[in-house]
C-alpha cells in the first residue's frame, strides 16, 4: 500500500489551521474577560492558598482557639485592676488586648504561666482595647497593635513595649530584669 503524502500534508495543514483558529478564539475569549475579574480571581486563589498553608501552622501553635479565648478571659477576670496597679510600688505588665484577637488568644497560656510565676512581684493588668474606658491609656501608651505588652517600673515609667506574640522565655527574662531593677 502506498502512502498518499499529498493527502497527509493536506490534513496536517487543515489541522494547523483549526489549531490556529482555536487559539485565536481562546485569545478573544480572554480579551473579553474584565481585568478586574482576573485580579479578583488571582486574589481569591492567593487567599485560599494562604489559608491552606497557614492552617497546619495554626494547629501546631494552638491546640484550640476556644481554649485560648477561655485563657484570655480568665486572665482578664483575674488581672490586677489598673487603678490598683498604679497605686502600688510593684512593677507592672499591662497587656492591651481584644477578645477577637487570635494572637492575644494564642499568647494567653504563656501569660497565665508568667502570671503564676511572677504574681507576687509584678502587677498583671489587662486592658481591652474595645472598652472605651481605656481610651486615654491606649493613647498614653501609644497602642498601635494587639497584643501590646507595656512594662512599667515601680515609678510607673514605661521601660519596654512589646507587640505581638512574644516568646515566653523573652517575657520571663524581661520580667526578671524588671523585678531585679526594683
Automatic annotation (TrEMBL):
Single GO molecular function: isomerase activity
Database matches in InterPro entries: Thioredoxin-like_sf, Thioredoxin_CS, Thioredoxin_domain, TxlA/HCF164
Pfam families: Thioredoxin
Coiled coil (residue ranges): none
Transmembrane annotation, as ranges: 37-54
Keywords: Isomerase, Membrane, Transmembrane, Transmembrane helix
Domain Thioredoxin per the UniProt entry, residue ranges: 51-180
Family matches, as Gene3D superfamilies: Glutaredoxin (3.40.30.10)
Top-level division of the source organism's lineage: Bacteria
Protein name in UniProt: Thiol-disulfide isomerase and thioredoxin
Organism: Rubidibacter lacunae KORDI 51-2
